[in-house]
Amino acid sequence: MTTSHRADLSAADIARFGAEPATSFAANLQTVRSRIAAACLRSGRSPDDVRLLPVTKTVPAPVLRYAFAAGIRDFGENKLQEARDKNAALADLDIRWCIIGHLQTNKVKYLVRFASEFHALDSFRLAEELNRRLEAQERDLDVFVQVNTSGEPSKYGLQPADVIPFVERLAEFPRLKPQGLMTLAIFSADVERVRTCFRLLRDLRDRAMAVHPALTQLSMGMSGDFEIAIEEGANVVRVGQAIFGARPTSDAHYWPGLIAPEPDQQ
Ligand SMILES: *Cc1c(COP(=O)(O)O)cnc(C)c1O
To answer: What keywords is this UniProt entry annotated with (predicted)?
Structure first.
């Protein structure tokens, strides 16, 4: 990208992302990729089995042009409206939008117009509405079934006991192409509690695959815990802050009811 494009950045963008965002994003990507590779090596896995899904929420659209310039093509967004606005602003770029956050059924009609993946399928109602709208668009959608593995009421997702009955009925929605299961681990400094969430998801995935063989993938792990997730079998890690820097907004905006952990627990 040429220097003239930097005129697109506001003073606030430059304060947050620096004057050379493509360079710093590329450097951060390299660091995250080598951490992924090291976690794979420790756990006897191939780095090819782990996909890095960069999470671009709160990064403004003009800055995302630099993320694209740094080589990122899959953009993970938690909120549909934010993703929609960015898709409109960046329509000239060949981006795969991956919606990773809770979706209200009344937003499904927007999602099916532009999203490539959806990681937060958590109800029959949503599956029905997605299938119906996808059918109208004559297209399919890759989906992950979200599971609440931490037992926290603030987290979205199916209860673990409901996963197998849910998966047994996925064939009723032929436009949905199930890829695997997704979770957010507990926000805790206690590594074993975090690990327990990831192990639970893996056990559920193994049982779900017996019912629906396409459910091979585990979407789990974020900036604070992706190495633990990889040790426990993650195939997709959703990483935002380790690539784009700390977010200025509270995560409670994305996870309603979240009680923020103490700073030293992050
Ligand atoms: C924001 C978000 C992430 C990434 O979190 P970071 O701390 O930025 O790595 C992962 N998954 C979901 C569902 C998110 O909303």
So the answer is: Pyridoxal phosphate
Q: How confident is the model at residue 259 (pLDDT cuts 50, 70, 90)?
A: low
| CA gap 184, 107 in Å, rounded | 22
Minimum-distance ligand 1 atom for the alpha carbon of 100: 13
Q: Output the six-digit token pair for 222.
A: 């974020």
Mutation test of ligand 1: which of 238, 251, 254 has the most ligand atoms closer than 8 Å to its C-beta? Answer: 238
Longest CA pairwise span in the chain (Å): 55
Q: What separation in angstroms does the CA of 58 have from each of 17, 101, 240, 241, 253?
A: 12, 13, 10, 10, 11
| Residues 93-149 pLDDT 10s | 999 999 999 999 999 999 999 999 999 999 999 999 999 999 999 999 999 999 999
- Inter-CA distances, 41 with 34, 36, 49, 126, 144, Å: 10, 9, 12, 38, 26
H-type alpha helices, the chain: 11-17, 21-42, 61-69, 80-89, 108-114, 124-137, 163-168, 191-211, 226-231, 241-244
Domain boundaries, the chain: 20-244
Give me the CATH code for the 20-244 domain, please.
3.20.20.10
**Dist. CA 8–CA 66, nearest whole Å:** 11
Atom of ligand 1 nearest to the CA of 57: 1
* Strands 176-182 and 141-146, sheet pairing: parallel
Is the separation of the CB atoms in 199 and 221 below 8 Å?
Answer: no
In the chain, % helix, strand, coil (3-state, to 5) comes to 50, 15, 35
With beta carbons less than 8 A apart as the criterion, state whether 178 and 205 touch. no
